[in-house]
């Protein structure tokens, strides 16, 4: 009892003292939202509401956990595991909304809150997971799991709780638990700092161009957008090109001026390593060392060993094997592609060697030569709203029987956001879907899905899920025309949304996309298949001015060029995945001192150091691994693609676009969340272990 009281006191100290004021009833987080399905009251939420709600939410859960741990009654599934599942509801409401808004419409105040909260939330988590009395109750139940009469989902939940506690350090000595808490707190602080540095530097690194002539090749709409951005930055009369958080930058495909292209790529790849307040090199070294030391404390050789044990890959050996199997043929393909691009440069009397900043520009030219079309020809047929409503939604209706209706009565956090009711095949409301498609300086890079409310029978909740992309917003009055990759991303992210919306589980721990990290991309990648399915494409790919469908001959050219530039795409991805693994397969004794040198050596040793194809993310702006949830897990995209490519073959073998296929995929996988072993879910659909051949064929790697 004394130890528990001391732990609680520590938790309260992190909250700013036990004598905090009760939460103001007017705070929008004080009670569950009264809007449909618990949709957040965005119009009432202000910066000043977050911290008080967090403080009260943590305090409430501390009391709830104390009550569970101190319960004099013998542990039961209901009074321990279910009680834990029900705890922390206020904290969950505020944390879910804050973390989502902080990624989409952040500001200085929110970033300050984020920095202050990171170590406090870490301490709060430790208070629960390192609570010895609580652990004893969980372990007591786990040892008797076969005698408790639990159904399959409840039994798996108990097993997962036991695993969660063990991996969080519940079996450590008291002294080691204190070390672990210090590691966790510092890591939370450093990861937040890394993410904020990346966002701030991306905004600060916009490339300023003096003359319109230097932007030759960009569309008039894009040039106007660049002028508008420069004006917002106080540089009226100039032009600004925003930086996105990948090494390659979209304008590189169209800018005719080679010097401008080189400058843009240089700005992009120098982020985080050029000194100044946003330099992330020391932050990276500290994160990597702390993760390695934390893993060692928990009994693992490296952080990768710790992280991968709980994934479907299970080991660093399995991940290294897949990445090395793909790397050699991918780089060989990239070098063949580079040779073709060099011939094109030489034919134009370019007089220079192909460099990273030339690739996209000449790849588009080569595509036009080989297939008689370039990517710009597609954009008039990919108007954003049509892609979403007549493509993404239409496919979901055909495959799963669900339907959508836009509603404008619910508040949004920015005017660009659209909201839709989602109705199930029986006509009853299934979910609410939020579409946030445009880029903005206050939004982190990339594309993602999140849940504001997760489905749970225990809690009586239905999903409120959102998709976020970073599509450049055109000038007022101009249509939003997407690139081929942006269309694919929209279908991909909606695959995550479907995973969240179709969730049909009892316990919050298993809801929606709460599956192993190297499995979560699998359903979303499967959803990409409908992008080019003839019936779907015909419905959405229509000229934004005339309404005419995309010509068959143009579509044929798109399909014929499906593997074009695949060597580049695979190599840049694998390079980032290998970097992620190399950093996290270090022991505490192997820490480097020079981030840039280590990065170069790691890529060289893996055979992916091909200069014209830079790694998709350099270490210092690799947010997935140093700030997001993909530490030692960036390989998960290609790991999941192996399952995806094989599942696409299953759909085709069974007739493709048919409700019976969608219903089976939904029933056996999408609705199950994390309620069972992930690979078993795959096998329940496919009927066997995954086959890598469809992945190799898709990426053009079979002829090597």
Care to describe what's here?
- This protein is mainly α.
- Among the domains are: 2-171, Neurolysin, domain 3, CATH 1.10.1370; 205-269, no CATH class; 379-560, Neurolysin, domain 3, CATH 1.10.1370.
- Helices cover 54% and strands 6% of the residues.
- The protein contains 26 helices and seven strands.
- It has helices at 2-14, 47-69, 77-86, 89-104, 108-129, 132-143, 152-167, 174-204, 220-232, 258-269, 281-297, 303-309, 316-347, 356-371, 384-400, 484-501, 517-527, 534-540, 552-560, 566-584, 595-605, 623-626, 636-653, 659-668, 678-686, 693-698; strands spanning 207-209, 239-241, 403-407, 418-423, 429-438, 448-453, 464-471.
- The strands form two sheets. The protein has a five-stranded mixed beta sheet with strand order 3-4-5-7-6, sandwiched between helices. A two-stranded antiparallel sheet has the order 1-2.
- The longest helix is centred in the middle third of the chain and has 32 residues, at 316-347.
- The radius of gyration is 26 Å and the shape is globular.
- The model is unreliable at 1-19 (pLDDT under 50).
